[in-house]
Recover the amino acids of this structure.
């Protein structure tokens, strides 16, 4: 159904006949870590996230998986090689 409060007219899975069913009955504002993300939109309560109603929860376990402005850096220090397969390959 469409939101009637924070983002009027926007389809939202948390809007029901009784209103917003998200905790606190509303979306929450974006947090400092969200700055620069393409998913920020202006709502009636200020800047909110179009992807997640609670940005602080999205960041509680580390990087928000929807963030467009930050990416996970994966460092591969050591590639693990199966010694059996390596010796077979070396024998060919
Ligand atoms: S997608 Fe993540 S980083 Fe972007 S605004 Fe929403 S909560 Fe913040």
């Amino acid at each position: 159904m469409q939101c009637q409060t924070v983002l009027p007219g926007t389809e939202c899975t948390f809007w029901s006949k009784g209103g917003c069913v998200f905790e606190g009955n509303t979306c929450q504002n974006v947090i400092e870590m969200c700055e620069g993300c393409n998913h920020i939109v202006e709502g009636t309560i200020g800047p909110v996230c179009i992807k997640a109603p609670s940005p602080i929860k999205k960041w509680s376990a580390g990087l928000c998986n929807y963030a467009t402005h930050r990416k996970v850096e994966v460092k591969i220090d050591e590639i693990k090689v199966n010694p059996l397969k390596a010796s077979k390959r070396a024998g060919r």
About this structure: Residues 30, 34, 37, 39-40, 49, 51-52, 55, 58, 64, 66-67 surround iron/sulfur cluster (CB under 6 Å). The two ends are 62 Å apart (CA to CA).
